[in-house]
Amino acid sequence: MRAVIQRVSEAFVEIEGKKVAEIKHGMLILLGIEEADNSDDIEWLSAKISKLRIFNDEEGVMNKSVVDIDGEIIVVSQFTLHASTKKGNRPSYIYAAKPEIAVPLYEQFKTQLSKDAARDVQSGEFGAMMNVGLVNDGPVTIIIDTKNMQ
Q: Is 111 part of the annotated catalytic residue set?
């Protein structure tokens, strides 16, 4: 499981011209799921993200989590995070999980993150063509891959 976490001052997800998610200060998380991912990946990644200290404290040091600042969260599924570009110029997505595996894991991740962060988690729609807008605050962008958890 691979996540791109962006600290944002605002973000939104639009589907067919309609906003389905919108936040102010918080995190926009792009989530890619592989065939080999499971509930262990979800639990580890959710705990890591909810405690990730990427928000400034009173002295301007990144020392607070999204929970500490009472921030908001949007999660967007993005299979292209598992693109393989080793050969040629057209990315291959053979490592990205098929919907029958990815959808339940995506839903489980959102539920777990909501529990770990003790807040509602907004989201895009799995498999939909989405427009995602954000103002990256900092900019701060962190990439976490559960295959590197040890």
A: no
